[in-house]
Amino acid sequence: RQELPPLELPADLTVRDAPAGAWTAVAKVNFEGTAQYQQAGIMVYGDDANFTKFGRIAHSASTNSEEKFEFIYENNGVARNDAADSTANIPAAFPDDFYVRLTSDGTNVIGHYSTNGTDWTLVGRPAPLPANAKIGLFAFSNDATGNPVAAFQNAFRCRTLHLEAHRVFDALVPQLVGERALAVVSPDPGGVKRAQ
């Protein structure tokens, strides 16, 4: 087990509320850690002492920093960071573009990574969701070796609930418009279809 410095989360962490019940959040990431402790990925955040972060991290001080994926659960400021919570070192030729996925059953969360968005590899052990769970993306370093650069795409693909609002509008629009002509204007072609 490697001792790491205490994790200091960035003050400007961007998060959104985690959905109630079961959910999945996926992000495509472009990142390679070039200095020790540079890392990027996705996390479930309760507060600075209660979170789970899952991502790719450069964990060695060598010139060609070794990288791995880790799924670190922190509870009341104590990190669970055992060998079972990380992969072995990833190959030097591992692609810079990859996917990270958090999946929750509403109580616990697990993390997977993929190089193609189809075939997924589990990392670590399930972790309980913190109170007031939020989902966020991160890219930071725990020391003064410079800020890592990461790009995220398709962030926060969460389960969608389709609400059927047309029934409300079907009843309300005739009351508001009466016998007058009605024009529907939409900035995108899909809007016309939705208006029909």
Provide structural commentary:
The protein has 196 residues and is mainly beta. The chain is 10% helix and 38% strand. The protein has helices at residues 166-177, 189-195, and strands at 15-17, 23-30, 39-47, 50-58, 67-75, 78-80, 97-104, 108-114, 121-128, 134-140, 151-153. The longest helix has 12 residues, at 166-177. The chain starts with 14 loop residues before the first strand and ends with a helix.
Helix content: under 10%
User: Reading side by side through the largest sheet, how are the strands ordered?
Assistant: 1-10-3-4-5-6
What is the terminal-to-terminal distance? 61 Å
Question: How many strands, what sense, and barrel or not for the largest sheet?
Answer: 6 strands, antiparallel
Query: What's the total count of β strands?
Result: 11
Task: List the helices and strands in order.
Answer: EEEEEEEEEEEHH
Percent of residues in beta strands? 35-45%
Radius of gyration over C-alpha positions, nearest whole angstrom: 21 Å
Overall pLDDT metric: 81
Question: Low-confidence parts lasting 5 or more residues at pLDDT below 50?
Answer: 1-6
Coarse structural class: mainly beta
The gross shape turns out to be: elongated
Helical segment tally? Answer: 2
TL;DR of this structure?
The protein has 196 residues and is mainly beta. The chain is built from two helices and eleven strands.
